[in-house]
Amino acid sequence: MVTTRRGAETWPEAAPPSPTRASAASTRLRSSPYLPTPLEQIGLAIFPATLVFGTIFSVLSPQTRAAPYDPITQSHAQDPTMAPSYFARKSNLFNVVFVKQGWGWMSLAFLLFVLLHPSLSTQARKLQAGVRWGLVTACWFFVTQWFFGAPIIDRGFRWTGGRCELAEMEVAMGDTSVGEMVTAVACKAAGGKWKGGHDISGHVFLLVLSTVFLVEEVGWAVLRWANWREDERAVVMADGATKSVNVEAGVAAGAGRAQNWVGLSGKITGVVAGLNLWMLLMTAIYFHTWFEKLTGLLTATIGFYAVYIVPRFIPSVRESGEIQDHPLSIPSHLDLGSALAMSRIKAPGDLPDLVKKAFSVARANGDIHYFPTQFQLRFSPALANKPKGPPPDPAAKSHKPFDPFDNPPPALRVADIGPSHFVVLNKFAVVPEHFILATTAFKLQTHSLEPSDLEATLSCIRAYEGHEDGLFAFFNSGDHSGASQPHRHIQLLPIARMKDGLDKTSSWDVLTDRLSERQTPFTAFTERIHLEMQGGDLHEAYLRLYRQAVDAWASFTGNRVQHVASEGESMMSYNMAMTKTTLALVPRVAEGVKITSEDGHVLGHLALNGTLLAGTALVKSELEWEALRKDVAGLVNALRGIGLPRSDSIDAEEEEEEKKTKI
User: Shortest CA distance to 308 belongs to which of 34, 48, 112?
Assistant: First the structure.
């Protein structure tokens, strides 16, 4: 339904925004990048709580107190008739099969998750997870197996006065051939006793570190995949700004909401983590002194902090571990240089701040044309000053037409997006912080988009993830699309700025994300996308939509189409829009309609571009705006006439209701 109330104009009516969206921006950045998040702190608290509970239980339990304890073996009597519990015996099945091989079980569970869970569907995410596994495994290996000789646990034991009793006796008797036993394994293999020093609990260290690793890798991935909880993590950017981790996230929140978001692999990791916690409790009750268990916990916590917290506040560490997806095959129309350039496309993480600052400075200096407006059916005086591309002049064919994106003023240029694109402020902004993504080399607006165009666009949208309401991008191609410049460019609007001037109770939201559930006066083709998609995958989705649109356009206009090319000049005019979840394409057969007053006087021309996929219609004067709000049915007919009409979109009864709408 079309409504035209001043200050809260919406078209078409959309579902109310998510109640969590408004508060998300204000809560995501409260976690310090130097400390675990509140959720991580709760998880980490489980480990000392388990150790404290186990220690108290061992003191209060009559069976445990009555059983003899050997400080050298760090365990109770191993005779089944004297051991306080089956789990107090080192030969118990869980200890022998599970804990002694604990790192292998953890690694197997993690491998299954990486291979099977859809949240890690790309090669880049799998490799990044593998790098973190390698770092944590190195930590485990250095502490328990080898560290340029003896492992850190054994070195610590020796540094605190520990020794191998057998080696000491042999040396005292004059036999120096045994040498000095520097590891617990060597000492015990030789029949000696490892005693006298502080022995960091290897069981506690292994069980805590492996559990933390599984929870970090699986927990955050699953929570984001299901959008069950806002991601609390924060990172420090290269410029020192603290941002939500969403600016660097590779997968859209809620991408797997409709699926089994835990999956078999997630359940397996849960079982392994659960067994780890159970055996940690058994260790707390029956093995080691409280101080040995404490140092095992602290050592594991240091490993967690080094692998998961330090990269959050040192950007260079994150960048050194960043792995880009590389396409396994290169499309026929894409040369190797283009493919390599595409793999390097990444928008600055602080792009929202760069755009905001540049817009404020440019507006203060008069470098852009922008006039605030409170209309959602937007009255934009800036459009009245916007020049169209120059008409062809037969006498001046040799002269190069003016190109606003060829060496734009430094005051408007914001940042480079890889080697193929750059961001520049729109000189004729329709909302604050309206900016443009243009190709570095001149490419035609009327040609099909390339993978790098789509990858660069999604990169900008990704940079706005977690920043207020995100970003809306649109592309105009062809005579009937509202395009004004021949140099290829995609326009981007911060969604929060599009909402400026609307009542707080307004239900307006970006139409593109609602097209699958809304009946519009024009035909639109959509596909679901996500922030992790690469340029090649996006391009395939774009081509599918384009071919569907061309087929529908040809059927409607009577044109015969034998082959739809994936490159070169577009066969029709169209608008494309992209958000973080949706790619949409609308074929066009007209740019707009004349706007007339009640007495038939022509007031202007309603020219619609890609902003119609946001649910807005831009007009150049208040007279045009007033005329349209008095003729809602006329606006609906105009929307039906600019594209391929949908007979099921708005029936006659609803149109009659629209005419009776109070204005």
Answer: 34
Amino acid at 591: E
Please identify which of the residues 76, 117, 203, 489 carries the catalytic annotation.
203
Report the amino acid identity of residue 178: V
Concerning whether 203 is annotated as a catalytic residue, the answer is yes
Helix 451-463 vs helix 351-364: crossing angle, to nearest 10: 90
Tokens of 557: 């206009």
In 435-557, the DSSP E strands lie at 435-439, 471-477, 489-494, 525-528
Q: Which of 403, 424, 430 is nearest to 412 (CA)?
A: 424
Residue range 65-116, pLDDT digits in tens:
888 888 777 788 888 888 899 999 999 999 999 999 999 999 999 999 999 9
Catalytic residue among 288, 434, 487, 539: 288
In this prediction the pTM is 0.54
Structure tokens at 506: 């307004």
Parallel, antiparallel or unpaired: strands 573-578 and 525-528: unpaired
Q: What is the dihedral of CA 307, 310, 312, 318, to 10 degrees?
A: -70
Give φ, ψ of 466 to 5 degrees.
Answer: 85, -5
* Cβ contacts of 631 within 8 Å, gap of 6 or more: none
Q: Which residues contact residue 657 at a Cβ distance below 8 angstroms, ignoring those fewer than 6 apart?
A: 1
Query: Do residues 126 and 114 lie in contact, with contact meaning Cβ atoms separated by under 8 Å?
Result: yes
Selection from 283, 291, 295, 265 nearest residue 99 by Cα:
283
* Measured CA distances, 104 to 107, 109, 111, 395 (Å): 5, 9, 10, 77
- Summarised one tens digit per residue, pLDDT across range 251-268 is 555 555 556 668 888 899
